[in-house]
Amino acid sequence: MLKKEWPIHSILAIAIIATWLKTYIVYKTSFSITVDNVLQEFILFINPLSMLLFIYGISLFFRSEKAKNRYLVLVAVITSIVLYGNVAFYRFFSDFITLPVLFQTDNFGDLGVSAAASVFWTDLFYFTDVLIILIAIKFINVKSGKDASFSVQRKAYYVLALAVLFFNLGLAETERPQLLTRSFDREMLVKNLGMYNYHLYDIYVQSKSQAQRALADGSELVEANNYVRANQIEPSKEMEGIAEGRNLIVVTLESLQSFAINSEMNGQTITPFLNSLTEDEDTIYFENFYHQTGLGKTSDSEFLLENSLYPLSGGAVFFTHSGNTFNSMAESLGNNGYSTNVQHANTKSFWNRDIMYESMNIDKFYDIESFEIGEGEAVNWGMKDIPFAEQSVEHMTEMQQPFYSRLLTLTNHHPFTLDEEDKLIDEYDSNSGTLNRYFQTSRYLDESIKVLFEDLKEQGLYENSIIVMYGDHYGISENHNEAMSQYLDEEVTDFTSAELQKVPFFVHIPGYGEGYVDDEVGGQIDMRPTIMNLMGIDTSKDIQFGSDLFSEEHEEFVVFRDGRFVTDEVVYAGNVCYDKDTSEPTEQDLCAPYIEQAFTELEYSESIINGDLLRFYDEEDGQLTTIPDVELKQ
Ligand code: GP9
Ligand code: MN
């Protein structure tokens, strides 16, 4: 026993420091967390602290020294298990644990086996802090007793813990605005909040959706289904099955807005290849097509495409409801003999894609690991779109045909940076660097699509495929209105902002021969029904909110995720009804009937997602599976 008497809370302090430092060392050695600057490194370093202060601090409420010490050891063991569990999981899945994977046993059935295979005896290192605490308890002689100011000190301690937490959250918010509302990526959550806070956050998000799910029964589906059936239309007979049996390639054009198509920037063409498609005999180009995404950005557009359901108002549905039952386009195509996949050169956990794709029954995800990024082939968010297009086509040559392959481009993403050699046009000259560079990256994206087409032809895949392309969401936010108004040479009002939500939508059918520019007003919710009709797959029993854009009966009414809407005559934005012809406010009455409908539509879609209602639905016979007495309207 050491002679010296240590200050009162020495063991607590040792425990906190030991676990804190161990966690940081584990971050650096056992995960590949990308750190781009000193601030990020600093956040990574301090992020375990707030939670450790809180939980270890509870020991201050224990009376006996013995109970206190036991509690400290227990906390060290539990946090070590959490951390180590993630390490073992990461070794196999290169991802952090999230609650749904623990329950999705059918998808991750090999979890236990693979976790066991990646355990080594040297892993005892992950429990070093437990050992340190045990040694401290045994050998350190702590001064006993409490002084009078103890409860004040305890309060001060918790104020400090709170301060550390808010400091951490503040830094995280500067580094990644909206991290908590949008989630983005598990790696980003761990990097900014810390492993322990991340798990609490994950538990909160997942239990919230589980609670809503538990409260729902199939009866709510009856109403939603009635609404869908009442608005259902006949898809176009003329276009039905026109691409049946062909490969389906869907390309997401990152951040591409329609204002870039068929227009110039200081005399330079922004998207020459896509422009040529608008005049191409095999292409139908929709010029009045709007994105309907919310906080989940790209992932929301994927959600709309696959399910023809609206994304959520309060966060990325890819994160909050990845455990739901869906009837995705991929699943339907899969049932019709297609092999299905997504290709995207980014970390697979971004937008929780790895988990969500399993839920949507997409057979394979070609994530960053499937691509070889040579020297000079990465910029901004990662792999450049041109080598990405080339390697995606190479992958296609290996796929079982017919296939449904979805490509997500990335270079045209904020902050829109490019290497010198890829700048094919000049920068713009406004006060917004973002907008100035946007033209250049859009030009580069256009070039990559040209390469994609060339490679498909070269590989003999072109003729027997159809290529559908859509812009996922805006690239230029309203923060750049001043620069935008310089470019458009008009004031950017709420009306203009709504019209700027137009994104390009191309349907390219090799050999079609009757291409044209279609002015039908439509949105991303319509992609699934439109594409499925082309593929000759019947969706009349599916629960979807969009409809076939080629159908004569298609209703020209697009609801944005934030409640704004557009028809062929009006635009409703900022609670004002605008006349589309004059771009000026008009009588509110002209919008009134749609306001209610927009709201109802979003509500029904949201209730389906929150209640996970499709688990009660059998799309084969269009009936509820749980309430046998209720006949659903067909
Ligand atoms: C990330 C890519 C871009 O993988 O989809 O995401 P975004 O920020 O556009 O949603
Ligand atoms: Mn995007």
From TrEMBL:
The keyword Transmembrane helix applies. Keywords: Cell membrane, Membrane, Transmembrane, Transmembrane helix. The keyword Secreted does not apply. Coiled coil: none annotated. InterPro entries: Alkaline_phosphatase_core_sf (IPR017850), LtaS-like (IPR012160), OpgB/LTA_synthase_biosynth (IPR050448), Sulfatase_N (IPR000917). Residues 246-537 form the Sulfatase N-terminal domain. Pfam families: Sulfatase. Gene3D superfamilies: 3.30.1120.170, Alkaline Phosphatase, subunit A (3.40.720.10). It comes from the Bacteria. The chain crosses the membrane at residues 7-27, 42-62, 71-93, 113-135, 156-172. It is found in: Cell membrane. It is a multi-pass membrane protein. PANTHER family: LIPOTEICHOIC ACID SYNTHASE, LIPOTEICHOIC ACID SYNTHASE-LIKE YQGS. Belongs to the LTA synthase family. This is Sulfatase N-terminal domain-containing protein. The lineage of its organism: Bacteria, Bacillati, Bacillota, Bacilli, Bacillales.
